[in-house]
## 1
Amino acid sequence: GDEFAILLPSAVSETEVIAVADRILDSLRVPLPVADRLIEVTASIGIALNPDGQYGRDELLRNADMAMYLAKERGKGRYEVFTVGLEAAGFERLEMKAALRRAIDEEELMLYFQPILDVSTRTVCGAEALVRWRHPERGILGPGALVPLAEETGLILPLGAWVLGDALRQLAVWRGRGLVEENFRISVNVSVRQMRESDLIAVVADSLEAHAVPPSCLTLEITESLLVDSELERNGLLERLRSLGVSIAVDDFGTGYSGLNYLQRFAVDVLKIDRSFVDGLELPSADLSVVRTVIDLARRVGAVTVAEGIECYEQFEVLRDLGCEFAQGFYFSKPIPPAEFAALIAGSSGDLSVAEMEDPFEQAPTGTSAGAGI
């Protein structure tokens, strides 16, 4: 998006400034006709007051910027007023944004990999690539801290391209060493902004070619909200991605508003059952019917299912009996660095030896947590 600044030198009160912000938001809520279509525009407004003239130009803009990002975090299409309490948190966030820019340039980022198991054979058949930030002061930071900052700063596009390229590079290494089967798949998350703003087709095609990885070995994970995005349907991006030979997975399926009609319209390949439905699945609960419905939906559209966040054998057993094809979670392994993952799939890991899974579920790996995908 674009950013604009409005100076109100004659405003005498906060109420007066807020009234201006309300008028701006109201005017932008009116759909705009563009090329025979109606386009809806939203805005997030940050208000910084300077009644005593204590702030200079740069400080005033910085304060407004902090308030604007707070408005974005709280739902967009709204305004927030800068307060002194926001200043300390804002400084920290600005420092983190600057550090993230350096991190991409100075190779402070790395990928961890979480195994995906074939339920029928109980073997590792793929992995999800998850970015980590080796922050020089804060230690290892996961996507929860990293991705929102990248979205705010616009760094999500170079970050997303780096994640894709490094995941394929690592897969090429494992394939070259004979550690994985020819059909071993890597799953990479793709953000909404990547889908809308980047030349994603070219980025994916170039990365596959650069690392000599077959397209059939790559799965791109999108959020369920994208299935109801009218722009995505108009530009045919999912169809064009699938025409490259890659698979499309819908992450956290069941938490949004999509249904059978959207799945049929976009022809996705994988539905990932959200961990919120898996948690407690070993006990009688309404989530059982939700999971059963998701698996049935997948079958009806020719897709397969991956259950996320599995933390105990009982959950695995229920999912297996329901016909879920693939499984992922801390019960098998947390996300781990490439060297540990290589040891795991080679059958030499102390935490999980997939090659020895004759009776694989007597003891789960330690360190289970609800944050399996982070």
## 2
Amino acid sequence: MGPADGSPAHGDQADGDPAAGGDGGGGGSAGAGWASRIPPPRSSVEDTGLPLPTPAPAPLALEHRVLKSLLGAWALAACSGEETAAVEEHLGECGACADEALRLRGAVGLLHPPESLDLDPALRTRVLESCLDRRPPRIPVPEWAAPYDAETARLDALLQDIADAEWHAPVRLRWFEDDGPVSRRTTVAGVIAHLLSVDGLVGVALGLDDPLGGAAARVRAEADAAAAAGIPRGPDLPGPQDATPAGRTETYWRASHFPPTRAVRRPWREQSHHLVRTVAFAGGGSGQLAVDYGGFALPLRDSMLDRAFECWVHAGDIADAVDYPYEPPAPRHLHRMIDLAARMLPVSLAERRRAGRAAPPARHLVAAGAPGRSLRLEIEAARPAFEDEAVQADTLVPLNGSATRR
């Protein structure tokens, strides 16, 4: 549109425009709206009644010798905030002090090597030991049951970290039977089932439920029926030795309609908790209770050590199968396991001799002057020191080459 139709031309302003100073139309209200957009003058902080901000402290004015003496504390981060600011400001002006500060910071780094942010793996153990030292448990676990408690807890932590598929990882169990090695292939879940069934021997001795339940009777009935039908008993069927650890394991495996899965972890862990809790309530005097292993018996205190040792060995088998690192037991627990093995060794050797499986001692002649020889000296007294004692001493004197020549 142009000027001909009465409308203002482009670039012109209307009469009521406040910028043009016109007073036509709604010029009054428009002028008031325009004035309301102007910010009011700001009031001073002193007029508000609020507390004034704390003024910044004045920097410390220290002499050069004082600032130089603070360099060591500054390197160790032991200065106050004001001293730190004064020292750092001085380091920007004094080159000699700056060089000395760098050397001190390097020395501090050598005194305090960088530490990992990861927690110490032994921290939890130290905290628990400190807590138990300050407040001993009302019902303590006997010392001879502590290795079993620790090893089952370590194995349970390993089982918690493995995936579902790793429960079916193959595991080769190896042991010695008579005079030859024997092996059996199973899975990780099968190993836990083996520990569950053998630990049940200790549970039965303590009056707990047998994890096999009626499985042993059911499998034995199947074996008897097969024998009555003239079917020879297979190597994995229970026989007269079904009360032994190996027989109980075979019974548990055969009684399972499906191969063991990770579901076996829960009853095994619950049984281990029940065993430790029961021996704790029974007290240390229960250590002489006999645990029947089928062909022999062990005191409860030795049986718990035996179960701890086997738990550690089979935990190592599982760790190897799933490629997982596994550490040996605590030194004090390992000492008890080795002590048990040393005490049982003479009994085992005597059993082998009675069964006719002990190798006769090798007797051979050694050339004179050869190292490794020994002399047996039999010393007899003229008369016995006591009436009922025959005085005779056997002494083996090892001889090396030089002693023989002399």
## 3
Amino acid sequence: MAAARYSRHRPLPSNRRPRAPLAPPGPARPPPALASRARPNPPRRHLVAGPGPGQCPRGTMFLTTVLLRKRIPGKQWIGKYRRPRVVTLSMKQAMIRRLEIEAENEYWLSRPYLTQEQEYNHNREGRRAKWETLKSTMTSKFPEHRYMSDHLNHLNVSKKWTS
């Protein structure tokens, strides 16, 4: 009876304990007037007053209690009532390592290799040569110029000029 009462479909509320039986434990005695016709009752199973917090109710397996415990509603990693993420030692060490790398990058970027005077026009000839080759390849792919007089010249067949 206890297993059916606390089944998977009707979980026990977390704030209530199962009720203790009303009759005292022991064999049931029939009333004296019906003693001749009564059959002997089988011995009753005794319910315990109830489990404490973190214990499973009598008649259920530990797995049932684990699966029916209160959980965080919805997705556990997003939303207002999300599960807090535990910060581990390896996470702290990885963050320190990334901060050290970033500090080293800032150090090297703050000290330029060339001064602005050295950097100004330092590769003028090379850039000029690259631009000339790019310009020549673009003009070689470009079609020749065309004129509208060439396209419309066939319309001048019937045109008569007076002289």
